[in-house]
Specification:
It is built from one helix and 28 strands. With about 325 residues, the chain is mainly beta.
Amino acid sequence: MAQSGTWRDHLNYDKALSIDLLGDEVYVASDNGIFIYHRLNNDITRLSKVNGLSDIGITAIRADFEGNLVIVGYENGNLDIIENKTIKNFPAIKNSSVIGDKSIRHIHFYQSQAFLSTGVGIISFNTERIEVSDTYEILPMSSPTINEVTVLNDSIFAATDQGLFKASLADDLTVFGNWIQDLSIPAPFENVNNVSAVAGLLYINFREGNEQGTFLRRPNEWELINSGGDILELTESPSGLVLNTSYFLDAKNPDGSSRLLLSNYGNTVPMRAVKVIADELGNLWIADNFSGLIKYNEENAFEIIRLPGPGTNNAFKLEISDGR
């Protein structure tokens, strides 16, 4: 049978879930696909299962500046690696016999490793050889759920549903005895949702429990810098940390003080920010759950970058009329 034309997706990209930067490209993830905004010429590239992605149900996306690649993680443990305009699939985690929640919750790059946070431990993924190096279970009986991981100086920190754990990168991380629970944090045995390190400072965030809020580690104490359980993300960015809820953003200076607070887009469109990253010039790139991608500069200029498409992916009927 002769084939005419190629398939093209018509998906809803307004419900953005995550965002990251790689060079002059902004990667924006939604449930079923990714679009790439090219900052130099304003072009947009779409990626979905139609043209290269291996799966649906994206849960994490992260760019590695040094390795010049992007890792896409899925709720079933699947991975796609985007490098030099090609996409490589790595299904080994998804297909492994390990029982448990293999959803890729968070990705943190350190040298040639990507630390993947999952419900079955920390998975160390070698980005040069495209293979799993190790899995770290940080308690003797079973690993707690790993929410996020970061590296500061010579130590790795893991935010888990049972507290904050740390280990020296010089030690064998596969030995659970080398992991130490940090009892200095507020509510040391409660769920730590987020952990980030920027400019030599360590931040943690509790979204529920007795000590709701975001804390910054000082030499002799943990300082509360945002109270309440509204903060959804702590995003490590080229020009500093960004905290966000769905309805306000807080971009930090290197010393932890606030550089910019935003609570609207300057129009009637409600703010539903899911994740925010600040580029090297201080511009904010916002993944919004209603409006897709929004760019903000400090001259109070907003730009909503939307792709044409349906209002939802839940299509159930199709009609043709007058060639439309």
